[in-house]
Automatic annotation (TrEMBL):
This is Arginase. NCBIfam families: rocF_arginase. Its EC number is 3.5.3.1. One of its GO terms (biological process) is urea cycle. Binds 2 manganese ions per subunit. Belongs to the arginase family. It catalyses: L-arginine + H2O = urea + L-ornithine. Mn(2+) binds at H109, D132, H134, D136, D236, D238. Keywords: Arginine metabolism, Hydrolase, Manganese, Metal-binding. Its cofactor is Mn(2+).
Length: 312
């Protein structure tokens, strides 16, 4: 660990927040993501990088029976998603307050309502770097799927209709404190929301045009011009090309290469400003065994890269 860290206490402690949860989308199996990542040896790998790692088992989320959570408007599983994210916000917020680095393993990306709320409780000035094929910024009105994993950003920014079940989320993230990298499957309404709120996004077009090094620099210049704000990195594994990370629920071709994904994590680590990391949407039930193995392995190596693993 060569880089100095501005916000993480010494000795550096990473707190693994395992979130076996799939209620923000419709495909079963993404709840197995965190279990497979830990079973693949992630904790030992991070210890090998010099971190002290805390993990006291995956969260046990209370179940609501199949028809116990009827839709609210178009939102599917609205109550359980809210409750789970709230629990995650408390866990992440607690670890962050203790000066640890929360590393949240999903589970689907609706969990980011919790992780980012937890980060902002401790680091109100944090900015968010969101790596994804998708913008996940639909509102309860604009969502076509009703899947809440496509909506966490709108709740965090306070956009769209207010749903009382989600009133625990303080909409305190400024649009200027969010930046995207990797987008390539953005719904029409989401494109409008990004424009109206002047949210900075580097799609795969910009990655092709400028290269990943320049894109990360421009992204940080936007949300963190003085390089003094804490950074929450939320990484949806579907940002990577499906040839690199096939086992995920909503794969989109034309994604980040293995190196581009890792470069982002390495560059964020190098800032010394990382205060929270999410690794989301690994679904070990999708595709064949080799694909699952590949996706879990790449998930582990992205986390290692964000926690200081270097090539030399
Ligand atoms: N976290 C994700 N993989 N999100 C995919 C979202 C897809 C689509 N935009 C939707 O609203 O349903
Ligand atoms: Mn995605
Ligand atoms: Mn996502």
């Amino acid at each position: 660990m060569s880089s100095q860290s501005h916000f993480i206490a010494e000795p550096k402690i990473a707190a693994i927040v395992g979130c076996p949860f799939s209620g923000g989308q419709a495909k079963p199996g993404v709840d197995r993501g965190p279990i497979n990542l830990v079973e693949a040896g992630l904790i030992q790998q991070l210890e090998g990088l010099g971190w002290k790692v805390e993990f006291d088992g995956h969260h046990q989320f209370e179940e609501i029976s199949a028809n116990g959570d009827p839709p609210i408007g178009k939102l599917r599983n609205p109550r359980i998603v809210s409750r789970v994210s709230k629990a995650v916000a408390e866990a992440v917020g607690y670890h962050a307050k203790m000066g640890k680095l929360p590393v949240t393993l999903g589970g689907d990306h609706s969990l980011a309502m919790g992780t980012i709320s937890g980060t902002l409780d401790t680091h109100p000035n944090a900015c968010v770097v969101w790596i994804d094929a998708h913008a996940d910024i639909n509102t309860p009105e604009t969502t076509e799927s009703g899947n809440i994993h496509g909506m966490p950003m709108s709740f965090l920014l306070g956009l769209g209709e207010k749903i009382s079940e989600y009133s625990w989320i303080q909409p305190r993230l400024q649009p200027s404190s969010l930046v995207y990298i990797g987008l390539r499957d953005v719904d029409a309404a989401e494109k409008r929301i990004l424009k109206e709120n002047k949210i900075k996004a580097f799609s795969m077009h910009e990655v092709d045009k400028y290269g990943i090094g320049k894109v990360v620099e421009m992204a940080l210049d936007h949300v963190n011009p003085k390089r003094d704000r804490p950074i929450h990195l939320s990484f949806d594994v579907d940002a990577l090309d499906p040839s690199v990370a096939p086992s995920t629920g909503t794969p989109v071709r034309g994604g980040l290469t293995f190196r581009e994904g890792h470069y982002i994590c390495e560059a964020i680590y190098e800032t010394g400003l990382l205060v929270a990391l999410d690794l989301m949407e690994v679904n070990p039930s999708l595709e064949d065994a080799a694909s699952v193995h590949q996706t879990v392995a790449v998930g582990c190596s992205l986390v290692r890269a964000a926690l200081g693993e270097t090539l030399l």
